[in-house]
Amino acid sequence: MDFSVISNNLPAFLRGTWLTFHLVGISLFFGLALAVPLAVMRVSANPWYWRPVWLYTYVTRGTPMLVQLLVVYYGFAQFEWLQGQWQAGNPFWLLFREPYFCALLAFGLNTCAYTIEIIAGSMRAVPHGEIEAARAMGMDYFTLLRRIVLPSALRRAIPAYSNEVIFMLQGSAIASAVTLVDLTGAARNIYSRHFAPFEAFIFAGLIYLLLTFVIVGLFRLAEKRWLAHLKPRKAQPAH
Amino acid sequence: MILQGYGGAILSGAWLTLQLALLSLSLALVSGLVGAAAKLSRSRWLSWPATLYSTILRGVPDLVMMLLVFYGGQVLLNELTDALEWEPFDLNPFVAGVLTIGFLFGAYFTETFRGAFLAVPVGQMEAGYAYGMSRWQVFARILFPQMLRHALPGLGNNWLVLVKSTAIVSMIGLADMNFVAEQAGRTTRQPFLFYMVVCVLYLVITGVSSWALQRLEKKYSVGVRHNEF
Fold this sequence. Notes:
The structure holds 2 protein chains of 2 kinds. Chain A is an all-alpha fold. Chain A contains 12 helices and no strands. In chain A, helix 4 packs across helix 7 (99-124) and helix 7 packs antiparallel against helix 10 (158-171). In chain A, 36% of the residues are buried. Chain B is mostly helical. Chain B is built from 8 helices and no strands. Chain B has helices at 7-40, 44-59, 62-84, 93-119, 122-130, 135-165, 177-188, 191-220. Chain B is flat, with a radius of gyration of 22 Å. The relative contact order of chain B is 0.15. Classes of the chains: A mainly alpha, B mainly alpha. Chain A binds chain B through residues 58-59, 62-67, 70-71, 74-79, 166, 169-174, 176-177, 184, 187-188, 191, 197-198, 201-202, 204-205, 208-209, 212-213, and chain B through 56, 58-65, 67-68, 71-72, 74-75, 160, 164-168, 170-171, 178, 182, 185, 189-193, 195-196, 198-199, 202-203, 206-207.
């Protein structure tokens, strides 16, 4: 191990880590925001609502995120209509030539699909009595969702969602396939410049490991805060 | 001509993906069982390395691991062939892929198997010993089949994740269906078409596996009563 390779390239590693961090952060944010209404549609009894969402989650969860990223970045460029928009200089469609935007779109849509199923699963698991009680109080559908079902379902989804966050962090390593220099991309550059595979990839792996531990720790705090009422009770001595 | 003559190449890429996935699965099952046995062992010299293995491998992205195995493995191999004065040879990306994905998912399987072993009621094993069964008989007749029942849902989920994560081998130059689609898309200027074909093939693989897993779960949960509402 040649540690000078690591110390000399520390700024490159840090820039890569920062790109990984906001790529994952922003796609998680939009994925979660979009997943809540779609999960409500997913558990709806009306097939016009749940079928399209089911199809979206089935296809997204059944194919690799790498393929999804390549479809967005390379695949869409096949359409002459899109190429025409690029030549016309349409600012919205020009975004599809930016690897950063394409990665955000692919990652966001991917995590959204998994998050929908997580939230839908915990919505189905809300005790039936709570819903009956709310109905008996005369709540309409949206009040019931807002006051009873979602607060309880989103809390219970925290442990499963923490896994999804970790999977997104690790899945984001494929961003280097579309020329982005994220943490893995930085390690690949450093490897090819110095021909030092161990220094480059082990150090990048350690940073990922550290980020994973931070995420696990944050979710442990979140569970303490929002899931305290579900913790198994401890026997207390009667003084 | 199916898909402008690339139909056959895509299918052989799909076959490679499948071989890679199945070989990795076998390696993962073996290392998962060994890992679970070590983690459950009373000896700290066994349980500690197993915990380290399952923690580190689950905390590092598969792609980083694969690049380390592929490029780092080549360096080690070169040093080895130099030391032994052999002809140097290139590390096969297929072998690197199987090793990485196999050991990586072995780390996930370690946790699945550990949980499943712990889920088998101790009373049943005591009953086995009381009948005069040997240690091995208790393991083979009582512990293992019941452990499998608890492990199957977790194994099934991980298998679906494993199939999808084989896609990253195209990044170390292995001609799986992803790699073929990329090249075909570039030459024919129809990347969207070829990626869609690949998506459908992945959906076929995952769809068939979900169906098979459901049947297996049914077979292994014979005698389990489910709540009916």
